[in-house]
Write a structure and sequence with these properties.
By secondary structure, this protein is an alpha+beta fold. The protein folds into three domains: about 40 residues, no CATH class; about 50 residues, no CATH class; about 100 residues. Helix content is about 45%, strand content about 10%. It is built from five helices and eight strands. A hairpin with a 6-residue loop joins strand 1 and strand 2. Helix 3 packs parallel to helix 5. It is rod-shaped, with a radius of gyration of 35 Å. The termini are far apart.
């Protein structure tokens, strides 16, 4: 298969008889042939490489490229090109980075559920305290205080921390997420007030 040569000045066709020199048919310039680029070999080089093994996660936008991260909003796998790294170690795909999702991602939903569960648990613990379920044992007030810290204060602090961790200024934050976070915070405030009242009594 003959290789077509082009003039470097006018892009006209070059003709050669010995394979060492060439003459431009347009303006008559003479040139020395340094190399010949075979277009068929270039086409072979540009063919896609062998497909990735089936167990390798691939980028949603670029299926031939292995994924390096997973979107923390929608869970889609993405390559380094598609990865939008935001402050706080958040990684989003292009779709979520340009248009935040209206709903919580899977990971943030789990955190929200745990924050709500802990808020309900602590509320029940406080209600039992107000109803006097732990009263009547005056000799063991210190053990009662430790018990209340374990079943009310610590879970409320964990619940508030989970809620605050799920709140993100870049992503959509539904009202229930704020409710869970503030609910746990209110329980902590009530517990501290009860401790202060107990000290003065």
């Amino acid at each position: 298969m003959a290789t077509e040569l082009f003039c470097p000045e006018c892009m006209g066709a070059l003709s050669t008889t010995d394979g060492q020199t060439a003459r431009c048919a347009t303006h008559g310039g003479n040139y020395r042939i340094l190399f010949v680029r075979n277009m068929s070999s270039l086409m072979e080089q540009e063919k896609p490489t062998d497909p990735l093994p089936p167990l390798v996660m691939r980028c949603v936008q670029h299926p031939a490229v292995p994924a390096t991260k997973q979107c923390q909003s929608c869970g889609a796998y993405m390559c380094a090109t598609c990865d939008f790294a935001l402050p706080g170690g958040i990684h989003l795909c292009p779709a979520c980075a340009t248009k935040p999702q209206a709903t919580l991602g899977a990971k943030r939903k789990v955190v929200l559920v745990w924050s709500l569960v802990l808020a309900v648990w602590c509320t029940i613990g406080l209600a039992l305290v107000f109803l006097g379920a732990f009263a009547g044992n005056k000799n063991n007030e210190e053990a009662l205080g430790v018990l209340l810290v374990l079943i009310v204060l610590i879970p409320a602090m964990v619940g508030m921390s989970l809620g605050m961790g799920a709140i993100d200024r870049r992503l959509t934050n539904p009202h229930i997420l704020w409710v869970a976070t503030i609910w746990n915070g209110v329980i902590i405030v009530i517990f501290i007030l009860l401790c202060i009242i107990g000290l003065f009594m």
